[in-house]
Amino acid sequence: MSMVGYIIGLGDRHLDNVLIDMTTGEVVHIDYNVCFEKGKSLRVPEKVPFRMTQNIETAFGVTGVEGVFRLSCEQVLHIMRRGRETLLTLLEAFVYDPLVDWTAGGEAGFAGAVYGGGGQQAESKQSKREMERDITRSLFSSRVAEIKVNWFKNRDEILAVLPKLDGSLEEYLNVQAEVTHVEKLHGKLLKESDYLEGAEGVDHPSHTLQHRYSEHTQLQTQQRTIQEAIQVKLNEFEQWISHYQAAFTNLDATQLASLLQEISTQMDLGPPSYVPATAFLQNAGQAHLINQCEQLEGDVGALIQQRRSVLRGCLEQLHNYATVALQYPKTVFQKHRVEQWKTWMEELIVNMTIEHCQDVYRKYEIQYAPQPPPAVCQFITTTEMTLQRYAADINSRLIRQVERLKQEAVTVPVCEEQLKEIEHCIKVFLHENGEEGSLSLASVIISALCTLTRRNLMMEGAASSAGEQLVDLTSRDGAWFLEELCSMSGNVTCLVQLLKQCHLVPQDLDIPNPSEASEAIHLANGVYISLQELNSNFRQIIFPEALRCLMKGEYTLESMLNELDNLIEQITDVPLQSLVESLQAYLRNAAMGLEEDMYTHYIDVARLLHAQYCELIQPRNGSVDETPKMTAGQMLLVAFDGMFAQVETAFGLLVEKLNKMEIPMAWRKVDIIREARSTQVNFFDDDNNRQVLEEIFFLKRLQTIKEFFRLCGTFSKTLSGISSIEDQNTVNGPVQMVNVKTLYRNCCFNEDQMAKPIKAFTADFVRQLLIGLPNQALGLTLCSFISALSVDIIAQVEAKDFGAESKVSVDDLCKKAVELNIQIGKYSQLVMNRATVLASSYDTAWKKHDLVRRLETSISSCKTSLQRVQLHIAMFQWQHEDLLVSRPQAMTVTPPPRSAILASMKKKLHTLGQIEASIAAVQEKLAALEASIEQRLKWAGGANPALAPVLQDFDATIAERRNLVLKETQRADQVTFLCSNIIHFESLRTRTAEALNLDAALFELVKRCQQMCSFASQFNSTMSELELCLIHRVGTNAEHPIGSSEWLISAHKQLSQDTSTQRTVQAEKEQQIETLCETIQNLVDNIKSVLTGHNRQLGDVKHLLKAMAKDEEAALADGEDVPYENSVRQFLGEYKLWQDNIQTVLFTLVQVMGQVHSQEHIEMLQEITPTLKELRNQSQSVYNNLVSFASPLITDTPNECLSPTSAATCQPTFAAAVRSNTGQKTQPEVMSQNTRKVIQKNLAPSANTPPGTIAGTGKSVVSSPKKAIRDPKTGKAVQERNSYAVSVWKRVKAKLEGRDLDPNRRMSVAEQAAETAGLEEQLQGWGEVILVTDKILRWEKAWFPPAIIAVVSFIFLMIYYLDPSVLSGVSCFVMLLCLADYLVPAFAPRIFGSSKWTTEQQQRFHEICSNLVKTCCGIVGWWKRLFTFKEEKPKMYFMTMLCFLAMIAWIGQQVHNLFLTYLIVSCFLLFPGLNKHGIISKYAGMAKREVNKLLKHKEKKNE
After folding, report:
1. How many CB atoms sit inside 10 A of residue 249's CB?
2. Cβ neighbours of residue 488 under 8 Å, at least 6 residues apart?
3. How far is CA 341 from the centre of its chain?
4. Where would I find the H helices in 729-828?
5. What confidence tens digit (pLDDT) does each residue in 1149-1199 have?
6. How many angstroms separate the CA atoms of 978 and 914, rounded?
7. Any idea which of 448-457, 575-584, 1308-1317 has the lowest mean pLDDT?
8. Quick check: 330 and 226 in contact, CB under 8 A?
9. Which of 106, 357, 979, 1096 is the most exposed place for a label (fewest CB within 10 A)?
C-alpha cells in the first residue's frame, strides 16, 4: 500500500488513517481524500513519498526495510508497471470529468492531511487547529535554533553599518550644501565679471555709477537716520508700556496695604553711628564731632519721618486711584496714546511711503480728534445718564429698606434671642406636661400647618397661572415670588421641626412614619434655598467676576465660550430653543400615550451634548495624582455650572424621597394632596420621562449661560464706550441723533438686566418641576401626624368616598383629631390654650426674624450693587472725562475727582524730591564726619591696638544704619515709581499739554519721513543689487573714483582673485564629495552583503511564518479573539515595512551616487535621511521579534532577545501565543512617523497552492459555464481537459516508468550542505586560485576591470589570428583544462603557502561553493521546469522554442560568431563586478525611470 500511495500521490497518512485488522494483522488504509499530490500544496507540505517511521521499521523485525518490505515493494511496483495502461486509462477519465475537485482541498484538505478524513472535521475542528499550531510552532522553533547564532551575527553587522551610513550621508549633505553655496558665489562673480566686460562702451551704466552711488548713499543715510529716530521712540514706548504694566500690577490692594503697613510701623534706625567711638572722641578732645554727628543724625531721622508722612499720603492717593483705575477695560490700554503711536510707528518703519505717512495723520484725526462725532458724544452722555439713573434707583431702594428696618426696631441677633427663649419655654412646657403637652402642642402646630398649606396652595396656584410671566411676578411689598415661596417654605420647615419635638408615634405601621415624611419637608426647603443661593451667588460672585474677565479681555473665558458655541454647533443643527420644544413635545405625547420615533433623535442629541459639555468643563490635567489645574475662564464656567448642579441635586433628592414613600391610595383623596398633584405640571414616576426632563433643563441651563455671557459682553462693551452706532456718523451733512429705543435694545446698563436669564431659569424650574411637590410633602406629613393623633384617615376617606371627584378636607381631619383627643381625655382645654399661646409666639417670633433677616440681606445686596455701580460710573467718567466735562445735568453720584488725585500726587512727588535732596545732603555731611572719625580711629589704632574692637563696632554700626536708610529709600523709590508712572499714564491718556507735546514731536518725525520719501521719488535712476555688490567687493577709493578706468582695473583684479579662490574651494569640496561617495558606496555594498545573508537565513523560516499568520487569520475568521499586537501578522507587516524602507534607502543611494548631482538628487537624499535614522530601531525590533516567536527553550539567553515584546510573545506554544494578550489592541500601528506605509494584513496564498484554491476558504471554485470548444476541421464539440489533471496523469505515468519528476522540489538545507561539502572537497586544491579569481571578478582593485578586458581581448585576438577549426579549438581548450587540473593542485600550495589559509578565507571559499551549488540547482530546476512545460503545454513549448531559436539564428547570421562570443564572455566575466558595485541596478533604475517618463508623456498626449 505504501507503493500504491507513492504512485497515486496519496497523503494524509497519520495513525487515524492507517488501521490494523486485529484478527488478521493486515494494515488497512482509509481516507483517500488527499491524493494526487494534494499533500504537497498544503501550508505544511508533505514531502515524503509514504509513511515510514521508527515504530513501523521496528515492527518489520531484524531485517527492517531491507527484508520482506523491500521485496514486497519491488513486487508491487513490477505489478503496477505491467498494468500501467489500465491505471492510466482510469486516470484519463478523470482528466475530462468536470465534477472532480482537483484543488488542494482548502481547510478540509489541510486538516484531513494531518488528522484524518472529513467525517470528524466538524466535531474536532478546534482541537485540530490547536494541535496544528503546536506542530508549526515546534518546527519553527527548531529552524530558529539552527539559524540563531548567524541571525544575531547578521543583526550586529547591520546595526554596525547603519550608523556609519547615516553619518556619511549627513556629512555628504553638509558638504553638498557648502558646494551649492560656493557655486552661488561663483555665479555672482561671473555676473559681476560680465557687467565689467562692456564697461569700455560709451553707454555703459558704469560711467554714471559714481553719481548714482552718491545719491544712493545720501538716501540711505537719510533713511537710516529716520529709522534710528523711530527706533529710539519705539524703545521709549516699549519702556513706558512695561512701566505702565508694572505699575498697574503693583496697584493691587494687598500690595498697597503691605507698603502702607511697612511705612506706618515705628521707625527704628538703630543706635547712632558715633556711639562706639564716643569715649575715644571725648578722650581725644573731639567732643564737637559728637555734637555734629548727633545733630546730623537727628536731621536724618526727622527728614525720613517727614518722607514717611508724605509717602503715606501718596499711598492713600494711590489707593483712591486704584479703586477706580483697576476697573479700566482693556480698550483703555489699547487706545492709549503710547500704544497707538507704537503701532503706527512700527507700521511706518516697515513701509516708509508718503501714503503711509498720510494714513498716520488720518488715524490720528479719527482717534484723538478734539471733538468726536456727535453720535459718539450722544452715546457716551446717554450711557452716563442711564448709569446715574440706575444708581439713583438702587439708592432709593436702599433708603426704603433701611427705613423699613428702622420701623421694625430689632436686629437679627435680638430676634434669635427671642426665638431661643420661646424654644426654651416650649421645652419646659413639654417636660412639665409630658404626653399631654406633646399631644396638645402637636394639635396646635398641625392646625397652623393646615392654614399655611392653604396659603401655600394659593401662592403656587398664582405662580402656575402666571405662566411665562412668572419671572416678573412680585408681591404687594415688591418682593419677588421666589422670596415669598422661600419664606413660606422656611416657616413650614420650622414648624415641622418644632412638631418633631413632640415625638408622636404612629398607630399603624403600614402608613408613612411622621419623621420620614418630615424629611421631605426639609428636602423641599433645601430646593428653595438652593434656588435662592443661585440668584444671590450670581449677583455676588458670578456677575462681578464675569464682567471683570470680559472687560479685561480674559482670553481663557473667551476661549471657553467659543468652545461651547462650537460644541453646540457641531452636535446639533437646530437652535437650543427648538431642541427644548421638541423634547417638551415628546413629553406631552408620552403623557397621552403617543410616542414618535422622530423625537428619539433629539433625545440622543441632548444626551450627547450633555456628555460633551461635561468633558468641556472638566479640568484639563491628565495626571490623576496632581491637583487639577484650571484656567480663569474654566473656573468661572465650572462655578456657574456648579450652582445649577446644586439645584438639580437638591431637587433629585426630593423626588427620590417622594418616590420611595409608600402612600396609601386613600390619602390621595385628601384635598391638599389632590390639589397639589393637580398643580403639578410633570410627574416623575417614569424614569425615562424624568431623564428627558433633566435633559430639557440642561438645555435651559445652556441657554441661560449663553444669554448671560452675551448680555455681560454687551454690558462690558457699554462700559468701555463701544457701541454699534459709532460707525453711523457722517463727516459732512446733518448730525444724526441717536434713537434712545435702539440704544436700549442694543446695549445693557444694569445688573437687573444681567439677572434676567437666571430669573427666567428659576421661574421655569419652579413652574415646571417644583410646583406641587412641596405641598405634596406637606400633605403627607400632615396626614402622618394626624394618624399619630389616633385618627384613621383611611376610614375617614372611605366614609366620604362617593365617587372619583370626592375629597376629604385636611382641616376637618385636624378638627376631628383635636375633638377626639379632648373627648378621650388625652389633654385638657387649658393645656391646649397654653400650647396655642406658645406656638403662636414661636410663629410670630420666627416671622419677625425672617423679615429682619431678609431686610438685612437686601440692604447688604443693595449696598454692594450701589458700590459697584458707583465704581462703574467713576470708571466711565474717567475714561471720557474730555467729553463729559461740560455736562449740564447735576450728577446723582459724584466720583472721586481724577484731576484732584493726580494733582495731589504731583504735589507730593515734588515734596518727596525736595526731601530726597535734603536727605542726600545730610547723608553726605554725615558720611564725611563718619569718615573723619574712622580715619582718627585708624591712626590711633596703629599706636594702640586696644582700639581695634572700637573700630570694628564703629564700622558695623555705620553699615547697619546705612542698610536701614537704604531700605527706607527703596520703599520711597517704589512709591515714587508708582506715582510717576500713573501720572505719566494719565497725562498721555487724555488731551493734556504733555500729550500734545508728544504728538507734535512725533508729527515732526512723520514729517521728516514724508520729506525723505519725497526726496527719494526725485531720483530717476537706482542702484541694482549687482552694482552694489560690486562696489562693496572692490570698495571706494578717493584716488580712483567709482567707474573710472583705474577703478575698473582694480575691480577686474579683485574679481579674478575671488574667482580663483572660489574655484580652489570648489575643487576641494568636490574632491571631498567624491571621497564620501566612495565611502557610501562601500557601505551600501556591505549592507547588500549583509542582506544577502539575511535573506538566506530567513528563507528557512519564512514559509512557516506565513503559515502561522494564515492560521491567525483563520482564527479571526472563526470569531476567536486574536490580538494584533505581538502577533505574527504584526511581525510580517513590520518586516514588510522594514524591507520596503531599506530597499528604498539602498535604491535611492545607488541611483544618486555616481551621477551628476542635481537638486532633485539632494532632495531625494534628504527624504531618506529620517528613514535611515529609524531603520536602526526597526532592525533591532525585526531581528529580536523573530527569535521571540520561538519556544523559550530557544531564546535561553536574555541578551539574545532584546525586544520589548519578547516577554509577552515568548509563549510555550503557538496556540498560547495566539490566545495571549487579549486586552491588547487589534489594529496595526505605524512603526515610525517618518516611515508611514500601508501594511497589508491579508497575506497572499502559498505559491504551492494549485489553481482554483481561494485562501481562507475551504471550498473549491466552480467554474462558470463556458462556450463549447469545437474542432476547426470537423466542427464537432471537443471535450475540454483539466490542465491540472493532465499534469497529475503525467506524474503518475512518470512514476510508473521509473521517473519521479518534481520540478518544484527544492533542495533541503541538509542536501545543500552535503553538496557544498562535496564540492569543497573536490576543489580542495583550487582554493587559493578560486579566491584570487573571486577578487578579480568582484573588482576589489580599480585596475581589475581593464585587466579582465585586456586578457579576454588578447585571447580572442589570438584565436582570431590563428583561426583554428572548431575541433582544434575544443581540443586545445579541454587540454588546457586537464593541465590546469593536474598542475594547479600541485603548485598552488607552493605558490600561495599552505600555512597561510585563514578562517576568513575558508569562510569565503565556503560561500563561493555554496553559491555554485545553488546556481547549479537553479539551472537544473529551470531545466526540469522546461521539460514539465513541454509535457503540460506542448504547443506553447514548441512555439516558444522555435521563435527563440530562430531569433538566435538570426543574431548569429547578422553578427560575427567570434565577436559575439567575445561579447558574451566579456559580459559574463564582468557581471560579478558590475553587480557588486551597483552599476547594473543604477542603470536599470535609470532605464526604468526613462521608460516611465515616456509612458507618462504618452499618456499626457493621449489625454
Report:
1. 9
2. 452, 455, 456, 459
3. 40
4. 740-746, 751-754, 756-765, 773-788, 793-799, 810-823
5. 887 776 656 777 788 888 888 888 888 888 888 888 888 887 654 333 434
6. 18
7. 1308-1317
8. no
9. 1096
Strand-strand pairing, 1277-1278 and 1269-1270: antiparallel
Do residues 503 and 514 make contact, with C-beta atoms less than 8 angstroms apart? no
Q: How far apart are CA 449 and CA 777, in angstroms?
A: 12
Query: How many DSSP H helices and E strands does the chain contain?
Result: 51, 4
Contacts of 162 (CB under 8 A, 6+ apart): 1087, 1172, 1175, 1176, 1179
Tell me 732's DSSP state.
S
CA dihedral 743, 744, 747, 748 (to 10 degrees): 150
Select from 649, 655, 647 the least CA-distant residue to 774. Answer: 655
**Distance from C-alpha of 314 to C-alpha of 311, rounded to nearest angstrom:** 5
Please, which residues have CB within 8 angstroms of residue 671's CB and are 6 or more apart in sequence? Answer: 807, 808, 809, 810
Pick the closest to residue 388 from 723, 855, 884, 725 (CA basis).
Answer: 884
Contact (CB, 8 A) for 1084 and 1475: no
- The C-alpha cell of 336 is what? 492709549
Nearest one of 1475, 1472, 1473, 1471 to 1343, comparing CA atoms: 1473
Rounded to whole angstroms, the Cα distance separating 1469 from 1477 reads 14
Q: Which three cell numbers stand for residue 263?
A: 511705612
Q: Are 88 and 1293 in contact (CB under 8 A)?
A: yes
Residue 718 and residue 387: Cα distance in Å, rounded? 10
Is the overall model pTM greater than 0.70, yes or no?
no
**φ, ψ for residue 28, nearest 5 deg:** -120, 125
Grid cell 437650543 in the structure block, residue: 576
* Whole-number Å distance between alpha carbons of 835 and 962: 80
Q: Is 1135 helix (H, G, I), strand (E, B) or coil?
A: helix
* Neighbour count for residue 1233 (Cβ, 10 Å): 8
Query: In angstroms, how far is the first alpha carbon of the chain from the final one?
Result: 67
DSSP codes joined into one string, 902-930: HHHHHHHHHHHHHHHHHHHHHHHHHHHHH
Helix (H, G, I), strand (E, B) or coil at 1376: helix
Across 456-482, b (16+ Cβ under 10 Å) vs e yields: bbebbeebbeeeeebbebeeeeeebbb
Residue keyed to cell 486509462: 89
Cβ atoms of residues 615 and 505 within 8 Å: no
Dist CA 411 CA 417 (whole Å)? 10
Q: Is 1270 helix (H, G, I), strand (E, B) or coil?
A: strand
**What is the tens place of the pLDDT at every residue in 41-82?**
676 778 788 888 888 888 888 888 888 888 888 888 888 888
* Strand pairing class (18-20; 1269-1270): unpaired
Question: Which run of H or of E encompasses 453?
Answer: helix 412-466
Determine which helix (DSSP H) or strand (DSSP E) holds 1269, and give its type and residue range.
strand 1269-1270
Among residues 854, 28, 948, the alpha carbon closest in space to that of 490 is found at: 854
Nearest-angstrom CA–CA distance, 225 and 1009:
10
Beta carbons within 10 angstroms of residue 1289's beta carbon = 20
Residue 10 DSSP symbol: -
The grid coordinates listed for 716 are 462690558
DSSP 1000: H
Query: How many residues are given for the chain?
Result: 1503
Q: Is 1197 helix (H, G, I), strand (E, B) or coil?
A: coil
Burial of 1225 per CB tally in 10 Å (0-12, 13-18, 19+):
exposed
Distances, alpha carbon 1477 to alpha carbons 1082, 1083, 1483, in Å: 8, 11, 12
Q: How confident is the model at residue 1293 (pLDDT cuts 50, 70, 90)?
A: confident
Contact 1239, 1137 (CB under 8 A): yes
How distant, in Å, are the alpha carbons of 145, 781, 1196 from that of 153? 14, 88, 17
Alpha-carbon distance 1256 to 1267, whole Å? Answer: 30
What's the distance, CA 1466 to chain centroid?
62
3-class secondary-structure state, position 28 = strand
Which residue has 543715510 as its cell numbers? 221
CA 668 to CA 776: how far, in whole Å?
Answer: 10
